[in-house]
Design goal:
Shape: elongated
Number of helices: 10
Order of helices and strands: HEEEHEEEHHEEEHHEHEEHEHEHE
Largest sheet: 7 strands, mixed
Number of strands: 15
Radius of gyration: 31 Å
Structural class: alpha/beta
């Protein structure tokens, strides 16, 4: 009897231990070598993910787990749309999801395994056709939601791409982005009948908007990035997506691209500003063909046509936080012209300030000062000529 009691006790302990393990919370599950925190969900939704690895765009899908989680836990629809020159639904990994477990603990394990498997499948998605048709991919995603069984869930498109479209209604290879009027472009797309009706898309999350890889040039400025974002917000809202439901996120993960991907033509972008972003290149002097007459604050030639002045104006227009100090100089001999050397130097700085204001720069971003001598030592025809000038120093406000 004692042996039976000991065996019964041992069995009870083992049974309780197994029950404890089975009922323990699963916050992190590991499947196929990857892990996912099941407490992280974007909320219940039907979800269409637009993505494929292709040239000119970074490969990074970190952060998409929570959207797959949201679709799975709500038994929503999950669609995967291949992003290339001919967007299409990847039918073998797109599906109406369903929760099979009723126990909360087992549900967490089921969700974690599902998310890990889908992320593994997403990592294998590669473009098959050349170029990228962004607007066409949204049209395909809109069709995905017509397959969803649960119409009470929010239809969310998660787009992973740079914002550079090279085929379809939005083809920046033919127009370039260096001088394109984006508002006029939207009007043209709409009037030409190429704007799809996105009546099923209720929310858009755009990942890695400005992330590109060679041979595509990087986006030149934050201002340009915001302008292009505004373009897509207006474009998608015109097509039917609620404006307040269009969001942008950036993944911290940056992976190298695989070789042998379909070609995507690089798009002409505006040049990077010459001044403002580089701390080692924040001083400028306009070239000698836009210097001043002797003993005068009058320019020898029109500075508005000078390339250096154009670079300065472009840099300041590209970054509204950029301010400039204009310092005027004189030759290294005493003069009584325009009130003397210091006054003459200040007048030269003020003359250049007026030019920048006429070219569209707000005067509260311009500081002027005068130095009653030259920046070069000595005198003589060449030195005096160089010293009758202004210099620019840039800083962030």
């Amino acid at each position: 009897m004692k042996k039976i009691r000991n065996f019964t006790l041992l069995f009870s302990i083992l049974f309780l231990g197994l029950m404890f393990v089975a009922c323990a919370p699963i916050d992190d599950a590991t499947t196929n070598g990857s892990s996912y925190n099941t407490s992280d969900s974007a909320g219940p939704m039907n979800c269409a993910i637009i993505y494929s690895e292709h040239s000119n765009s970074t490969k990074s899908i970190s952060g998409l787990e929570k959207y797959i989680h949201g679709a799975k836990e709500a038994s929503g629809y999950l669609g995967i749309v291949k992003l290339d020159g001919s967007p299409s639904v990847i039918s073998n990994i797109s599906e109406q999801t369903k929760m099979n477990s009723e126990n909360e603990t087992r549900q967490k394990g089921e969700i974690a395994e599902y998310v890990n498997n889908k992320m593994d499948e997403l990592n294998k998605v590669k473009a098959e056709k050349e170029e990228v048709d962004i607007l066409g991919s949204f049209k395909v995603a809109n069709e995905c939601f017509k397959k969803a069984n649960n119409n009470d869930l929010e239809n969310t498109v998660v787009f992973v791409g740079s914002g550079i479209s090279t085929k379809g209604a939005i083809d920046f290879t033919s127009t370039g982005l260096d001088s394109l009027n984006l508002n006029d472009y939207i009007s043209w797309v709409e009037k030409s009948g190429q704007l799809p009706k996105l009546d099923k898309v209720e929310r858009v999350i755009w990942y890695n908007f400005d992330k590109v890889s060679s041979p595509q040039a990087e986006f030149p400025t934050e201002k340009f990035t915001e302008q292009l974002k505004d373009f897509y917000i207006k474009l998608l809202s015109t097509a039917g997506v609620p404006k307040e439901k269009i969001e942008f996120e950036t993944s911290d993960q940056q992976d190298s691209l695989s070789s042998g991907l379909p070609k995507v033509s690089p798009v002409t972008l505006p040049p990077k500003p010459k001044y403002g972003d580089d701390p080692d290149n924040n001083e400028a002097q306009i070239s000698s063909d836009v210097l001043f007459y002797g003993d005068s604050s009058q320019f020898k030639t029109d500075p508005k046509t000078n390339g250096d002045v154009k670079d300065i104006v472009y840099s300041m227009n590209a970054d509204s936080a950029l301010v400039v100090t204009i310092t005027g100089y004189t030759a290294n001999y005493q003069t009584n012209a325009e009130g003397g050397n210091e006054s003459l130097a200040k007048n030269r700085a003020e003359a250049m300030k007026r030019v920048l204001v006429e070219l569209g720069i707000s005067e509260d971003r311009i500081v002027t000062e005068g130095v009653g001598k030259g920046w070069r030592d000595g005198t003589g025809a060449g030195i005096d000529e160089d010293n009758r000038c202004v210099k620019f120093n840039f800083r962030k406000n």
